[in-house]
C-alpha cells in the first residue's frame, strides 16, 4: 500500500469511527484498501483504489 492510499484509508476510518462514537453504526472489518461499515444491519463496503489511465 502506498502512502497516499494509507492516508486516504486512515482519514476515512477516522470519520467512520467518529460516526460510531455518535451511535451511527460501527466498523465491521478492515482490509488494506477497504473498510466494511455496518448501519442498521446493512453492510457498506468502502473501497479506495487508484484508477489507472490507459
Provide keyphrases for this structure:
54 residues; three-stranded antiparallel β-sheet; single chain; alpha+beta; 35% helix
Describe the structure.
The protein has one helix at 3-21, and strands spanning 26-30, 34-39, 42-47. Helix content is 35%, strand content 31%. The mean pLDDT is 92. It has a 3-stranded antiparallel beta sheet with strand order 1-2-3, covered by helices on one side. It is α+β, with helices and mostly antiparallel strands.
Concise account of the structure shown:
With 54 residues, the chain is an alpha+beta fold. The protein has one helix at residues 3-21; strands at residues 26-30, 34-39, 42-47.
Question: Termini, distance in Å?
Answer: 21 Å
Reading the helices and strands in chain order gives HEEE
Main sheet characteristics: 3 strands, antiparallel
Structural class: alpha+beta
Query: How many strands in all?
Result: 3
Radius of gyration: 12 Å
Strand content: 25-35%
Number of helices: 1
Shape: elongated
Unreliable stretches covering 5 or more consecutive residues: none
User: For the residues shown, what is the average pLDDT?
Assistant: 92
The percentage helix is 25-40%
How are the strands of the biggest sheet laid out side by side?
1-2-3
